[in-house]
Every structure is written in structure tokens, then in C-alpha cells.
TrEMBL record:
Membrane topology field: Multi-pass membrane protein
Occurrences of domain DUF2179 (ranges): 235-288
Subcellular location: Cell membrane
Entries under CDD domains matching the protein: YitT_C
Name this protein carries in UniProt: YitT family protein
Keywords per UniProt: Cell membrane, Membrane, Transmembrane, Transmembrane helix
Pfam family, one: YitT_membrane
Main location: membrane
Organism: Lentihominibacter hominis
UniProt cross-references to PANTHER family, sorted A to Z: UPF0750 MEMBRANE PROTEIN YITT, UPF0750 MEMBRANE PROTEIN YITT-RELATED
Length: 297
């Protein structure tokens, strides 16, 4: 039997590991995004989605029409101020603070990373720049944070409403592209659509949290299984009591809905903890009710 101090120590170590993971994934994603902006986006004169695209558009407007060169960081931080405040109230304090760190890091990296164009072929820039951007965003989301701006909206709907809205955000970015097209030419705006579409598809490929499955775990150690599910997914579970018809022995059934990627980790750890457990995974297309993550608050 573990003492209360041992349990607290384990929880503290788990929280520290989680925060380190968030920071590492987020900073790598921020650096990749900054390099992408300086190497691909600037070279092609493109306008990526979200507030980064708005920031770049404002930089172009001030530089071309007023002869003023604005740094990336202050514009990005001002634009993200409102979403950060809303996220703090609607999504969670921990998630918002971590995302704010990534927003600041991305802005600073973008200002200090040297511009090294890899290619000047605008079609290649649109495709591969979009792929790299999707990888950067996905790294942040997988780590447990985001790149800010419209990602706050995406995370809110995924975690609170279990709805994937990345394609709707892509449509919302059309406003920025229309302005860019009117001011700087429609070719750049149309190539930016390719960039954003490629980025969105890359996020769908790498980030699978919105794809849910239902786990039914028949076990003699339901508490142990629940702790694994809680540790891996930060979601709760429901315990049912059942009787094995062949053995006539009473067993527990743990029922929980998790993401497809989380399910693989949970199943592996459950079978390591209880080799005699029986696990059934069912594809889940729709569900309603309270389904919030406890680690983003």
C-alpha cells in the first residue's frame, strides 16, 4: 500500500514530466514555425493561416504603403491578447499559460532567425511550406499546447464540443487572403490557399486526438486500470460490475472514451499491468455529455 507522501511525490514527478514535455514539444514547434516563416513564407510572399498570417499581412501593408518596417513580435502579441484572455476563461489556465509561452517564443524566434530561402519556386514553397507548418502546429498540439490565435478556437471545440473545426478555420482565413489578393495580387493569395490546405491536411494526419474510440476493459484490477487511463488521457472512466459466464467469477469492467492515439498507450500499459485483462476497442463516431480534460485547467 502506497503512503500518501509517495502518491504525492509520484504525482509531482508526473506533473513535472508533463510540463517538460509540453515545453520541449512547444519550443521545437515554435522554432520550426519561425524557420518556416523566414525560409518559405517570406520567400514566396505567402500569408499563412491564423494570426501569423494577419501579422505578416500587417507587416506588408506598413512596409509597402507607409515605408515602415514593423517587427513581428509586438504585432503578434497584440493580436493574440484577446484570444489568450478568452482561452484563460473558457479552456483553462494551464493550457493558456503554456500557449502564451509558445506564442512569445514563436514571435521572438521569427525576429531573430535569419532569412535563408530554400527555393524561389512558389508552388514548391506553397506545398512544402504548408507541410512544415502543419508539422509545427501538430507538435504543439501533441505536446499539450498550441501556437495560439485560431488554435485556441480549434482546441476549444475539440475538447469541449468534440468537433474538428480546422476546415472551418481554413474557410475563415479566406478573409485575410481576399485582403491580401486585393492589395498585393491574387496569385500570392491563391498560392496561400494551397499552403493553408496542405497545412490543414498535415494536422489531420498527425494530430488524431479528435478521433475517439471506446475502451471496454474486463479486469480483476479495475482501480489499477483506471489509474492508467487517468494518467495517460486525463479523463475519467466508469466502472461496471460483471460476472464471467464461463468462470462464474465476478470481474470489473472499465468503460472510457479516449483518443485513437491514447488508446494504443493505454492498452499497452493495461496489459503490462494485468496480462489477463480483456480489452475491446470500439470506434466512436459521436457522443454527448461532459468530456473535459482535467490537465488544461
Amino acid at each position: 500500500m502506497k503512503s500518501k507522501n509517495e502518491t504525492c511525490d509520484q504525482k509531482l514527478k508526473s506533473d513535472v514530466k508533463k510540463e517538460i514535455k509540453i515545453l520541449i514539444f512547444g519550443l521545437i514547434g515554435a522554432l520550426i514555425m519561425a524557420v518556416n516563416i523566414k525560409s518559405f513564407v517570406h520567400a514566396g510572399g505567402l500569408y499563412p493561416g491564423g494570426f501569423n498570417g494577419v501579422t505578416l499581412l500587417l507587416q506588408s501593408i506598413f512596409e509597402n504603403f507607409f515605408g515602415i518596417t514593423l517587427p513581428f513580435t509586438p504585432i503578434s502579441l497584440i493580436l493574440n491578447a484577446v484570444p489568450v484572455a478568452v482561452s484563460f476563461l473558457a479552456i483553462g489556465k494551464r493550457f493558456t499559460v503554456n500557449t502564451t509561452v509558445i506564442i512569445v517564443a514563436t514571435s521572438i524566434f521569427t525576429d531573430i532567425v535569419p532569412a535563408i530561402p530554400i527555393t524561389h519556386d512558389i508552388l514548391l514553397i506553397s506545398i512544402f511550406g504548408g507541410i512544415v507548418n502543419g508539422i509545427a502546429v501538430s507538435l504543439c498540439l501533441i505536446g499539450g499546447t498550441s501556437t495560439g490565435g485560431t488554435d485556441f478556437i480549434a482546441v476549444f471545440f475539440m475538447e469541449k464540443k468534440n468537433t474538428d473545426v480546422f476546415n472551418y478555420i481554413l474557410l475563415g482565413n479566406a478573409i485575410v487572403l481576399i485582403i491580401a489578393g486585393i492589395l498585393f495580387g491574387w496569385d500570392k493569395a491563391l498560392y496561400s490557399i494551397i499552403f493553408q490546405f496542405t497545412s490543414t491536411q498535415m494536422i489531420h494526419l498527425l494530430y488524431q486526438t479528435h478521433n475517439k474510440v471506446t475502451l471496454f476493459v474486463v479486469t480483476d484490477h479495475p482501480e489499477r486500470v483506471y489509474e492508467i487511463i487517468r494518467e495517460v488521457t486525463h479523463h475519467s472512466a466508469t466502472e461496471l460490475t460483471a460476472t464471467g459466464m464461463y468462470s462464474q467469477q465476478e470481474r470489473g469492467i472499465i468503460y472510457s472514451i479516449v483518443s485513437r492515439t491514447e488508446a494504443k498507450v493505454v492498452i499497452r500499459q493495461v496489459l503490462e499491468s494485468d496480462p489477463h485483462a480483456f480489452v475491446n476497442v470500439v470506434k466512436t463516431d459521436m457522443f454527448t455529455g461532459r468530456f473535459y480534460m482535467d490537465d488544461i485547467h
